[in-house]
Design goal:
Bound molecules: adenosine-5'-diphosphate
Organism: Kaistia dalseonensis
EC number: 1.2.1.16, 1.2.1.20, 1.2.1.79
Shape: globular
GO molecular function: glutarate-semialdehyde dehydrogenase (NADP+) activity; succinate-semialdehyde dehydrogenase (NADP+) activity
Strand content: 15-25%
Distance between the termini: 67 Å
Pfam family, one: Aldedh
Radius of gyration: 23 Å
Largest sheet: 7 strands, mixed
Family: Belongs to the aldehyde dehydrogenase family.
Number of helices: 15
Length: about 475
């Protein structure tokens, strides 16, 4: 891989400030199937070492002033931005997303580091009016301690920084296990953190067996908190595993985002929002629209305009200029997309565009639009995580809300309307942690990201993001 700074391509892991391990586990480019690097295959023993390093680093890191931690994080932010081109190239090669999207993710990932560098200084306590004349009641916030982060492949940089920056800002130390498909971006971020002056052991990054590393991170009593982004299935498993040591948890799990287009919507804006939310990262984000619910009066016109917009999308390797749709991450992802389409067609859906594996082969898939979708189809119940827009028809607002909420998930939801009364009614009725109203793009470091129901709990970004990494301690000072 041609990089400006070849030192960012790491084939070892970061434990206690030392780069260690034998490169074993192959990392492949999903656009070509080519092996691009190897990283260590660590298990429980190395995980214990990383946890011990984080434990040793904790007292000194916690004791620094918030401003000192903020200064180091700020340098990390600058270093990430300065390395944008290399980080984006590494990401595109291991993950598949178009280079323009990868650059966008680096800016987005860096924004969390900047934000939490600033928030580090604002972890305020409280003074509570006392229940007794001779006492004063105070609340202070302290770092949780050693934390663990397990992250997915769809946002190889941002899912790490929004956990790591919040943890470090709060005074915690961290062990990160990135997804096996995308460890290289994570390791490059670790290298930049080290250069920015993050002390040895404060951030440790280990690659290898998810089961073994996850087992140790959840069983080890030194780890006080686990933050996980990934599937609901694995989230439940990790929660059960964490019960033994009663860890604090943040769970950002799967979604099944509804996108409602009402009769009074601005249709061009709705099409633009649907494209942005559905096809970003080839449909592989947890806030991607999974079900597009369109009201009778505008259904056919919306479908027509959506198909025209979808025809403009360009499929290809992410490194090629102008490409907007990269490959799917792997063959199981491709199989799931095919199964969902076949199941929908079997149950009466019509293919308006796409529907097939792309002529490019590999894991490339045609951007697809289906109409006539119904709640009994697999794609109505599970996250497709691919470039398939599934259109459902509805008649009135009550039906739209019922359909939207007919899922165990509750991460993101979207709707388009110009009616102010309806906007409030629907926004309050939708069972989601985040709602896009007349927009398909909602993510920003300044707002709280997270879900409800089986999409998890905890919030990342915003002023709430750092709270997840601090404990409340109440002090009762009596005898005054
Ligand atoms: P995705 O569908 O995004 O791959 P997963 O939940 O399978 O979602 O994976 C998300 C992260 O969880 C990855 O880093 C993966 O390696 C990790 N993971 C998968 N299985 C386990 C497990 N049993 N224990 C701990 N981590 C796991």
């Amino acid at each position: 891989m041609d990089l400006i700074d070849a030192d960012l391509l790491r084939d070892t892991c970061l434990i206690d400030g030392i780069w260690t391990g034998e490169p074993k586990l192959a990392v492949t480019d999903p656009a070509t199937g080519e092996e691009i690097a190897r990283v260590p295959q660590f298990g429980a023993a190395e995980t214990r070492e990383a946890i011990a390093a984080a434990e040793r680093a904790l007292p000194a890191w916690r004791a620094r002033t918030a401003k000192e931690r903020a200064t180091i994080l700020r340098r990390w932010f600058d270093a990430i931005l300065a390395a944008t081109e290399d980080l984006a190239m590494i990401m595109t090669r291991e993950q598949g997303k178009p280079l323009a999207e990868a650059r966008g993710e680096i800016a987005y990932a860096a924004s969390y580091v900047e934000w939490f560098a600033e928030e580090a200084k604002r972890v305020y306590g409280e003074i509570i009016p006392s229940h007794r004349a001779d006492s004063r009641l105070l609340v202070i916030r302290q770092p949780v301690g050693v934390c663990a982060a397990i992250t997915p492949w769809n946002f190889p940089a941002a899912m790490i920084t929004r956990k790591a920056a919040a943890a470090l800002a709060a005074g915690c130390t961290l062990v990160v296990k990135p997804a096996s498909q995308t460890p290289l971006t994570a390791l490059a971020l670790g290298r930049l953190a080290q250069r920015a002056g993050v002390p040895a052991g404060v951030i440790n990054i280990i690659t290898g067996s998810a089961r073994e590393i996850g087992g140790e991170l959840t069983a080890n009593p030194v780890v006080r908190k686990l933050s996980f982004t990934g599937s609901t299935e694995i989230g439940k498993l990790l929660m059960a595993q964490s019960a033994g040591t009663l860890k604090k948890l943040s769970m950002e799990l799967g979604g099944n985002a509804p996108f409602i287009v009402f009769d009074d919507a601005d249709l061009d804006a709705a099409v633009e929002g649907a494209i942005a939310s559905k096809y970003r990262n080839t449909g592989q984000t947890c806030v991607c629209v999974n079900r597009i619910l369109v009201q009778d009066g505008v259904h056919d016109e919306f479908a027509r305009r959506l198909a025209i917009a979808v025809a403009q999308l360009k499929v290809g390797p992410g490194t090629e200029p102008g490409v907007t749709q990269g490959p799917l991450i792997d063959v199981p992802a491709l199989d799931k997309v095919e199964e969902h389409i076949a199941n929908a067609v079997e149950h009466g859906a019509a293919v308006l565009s796409g529907g097939q594996r792309h002529a490019l082969g590999g894991t490339f898939f045609e951007p697809t639009v289906l109409t006539g979708c119904t709640p009994d189809m697999a794609l109505a119940r599970e996250e497709t995580f691919g470039p398939v827009a599934a259109l459902f028809r509805f008649t009135d607002e009550a039906e739209a809300i019922r359909l939207a909420n007919d899922t165990e998930f509750g991460l993101a939801g979207y709707f388009y309307s110009r009616d102010i009364g309806r906007i409030w009614r629907v926004a309050e009725a939708m069972e989601c942690g985040m709602i896009g109203i007349n927009t398909g793009l909602i993510s920003t470091e300044v707002a709280p990201f997270g879900g409800i129901k089986e999409s998890g709990f905890g919030r990342e970004g915003s002023r709430h993001g750092i709270e997840d990494y601090s404990e409340i301690k109440y002090l009762c000072m009596a005898g005054l």
